[in-house]
Amino acid sequence: MQLTKETELPEKFDTYIKPWFEHNMAFGFWMLSDGTSLHYRYAHHNEAKSVIVISSGRVECAAKYAELIYDLHQNGHSVFIHDHRGQGLSTRLKENPQLGYINDFNTYVSDFNHIIDNVLFPILDDKYLKASQKKSNSPAIMLQQTYPPLHLLCHSMGSAVGALLVRARPKLFSKAVFCSPMFGITPPLPPWIMTTLVRLGVVFNKLRGKKTSYFFGHDDYMPTAFYKNRLMSSKVRYDIFRKTYAQQPELQLGGVTYEWLYASLVAMKEIRQQASKITVPCIILYSGADTVVANEEIEQVINDIKGCESTLIPEALHELFFEKDKFRVPALTKILSYYSTP
């Protein structure tokens, strides 16, 4: 198993991984009927064991995942990722592009369905169906016989989106992995106070003409000093993350709005209440020192999904894909082994 090491990153990222990401990955934009443009990237592997579809977290985008995508590709997988609407290079939804806004998490799910059906499947048709037809001289090849299996890989908010997606389309993916899933959040205030503030904020914004605003204490993008961050304990990977966003300011996203928070609370409650309806084979990895999402709610979902495997990584922070090697390597080893098991 080939995984990039922290000691290699300072030199390897700029000299190899970043150029590989920028020049070897296909990319484009898919325009939705409402005018939203979704940015996507695809890394093809000629002997792919599977096609891994990534659902990234809030604030994140394809560029942040360069090292992870490179590692997945080096281990024999094709990779597809898109930037959720309102972040990355996809269309921002408000006049202030920094506002973290969504009205309904099912909009994320609808976007995901559209980009898989209209972008990923045509790519796979081109890569696999035509080649298979040429070999067999038959136009009646079934798609599922020519594609490698599709696997879903989710992080944080992307896990909430992914859980809603696989519940709605249980046959779309062969397997799913949810990492540090946002099935519940650790609020900065007592839950009942935060919920009350969120509801009041949404109502107030509607009364003043459906404008939106940051939740209490949130503002435009501001890089946090490493020693204050709650995301990862790897300084090397944290510095690369912040450097990427400094070099491409268009990737930056500020805090959450009242509307995003309200939509997330509705989505997380729905996931917890209907977890038993998730039937895709899946595993959940979560972090022992996570202060972003709530492990108690994650464990509730683990117990309610029939046959769901889980792994708790003690002492790790929220972003397992960007953690120190001692946390990241076991997490990715577990994921890649799971995807490779029939």
TrEMBL record:
Enzyme Commission numbers on file: 3.1.1.5
Class of this enzyme: hydrolase
InterPro entries named in the record: AB_hydrolase_fold, Hydrolase_4, MAG_DAG_Lipase
GO molecular function, one term: phosphatidylcholine lysophospholipase activity
Top-level taxon of origin: Bacteria
Keywords on record: Hydrolase
Residue ranges of domain Serine aminopeptidase S33 in the record: 47-325
One Pfam family it belongs to: Hydrolase_4
PANTHER family: PHOSPHOLIPASE-RELATED
Protein name: Lysophospholipase
Natural source organism: Brumicola pallidula DSM 14239 = ACAM 615
Name of the gene encoding the protein in the UniProt record: pldB
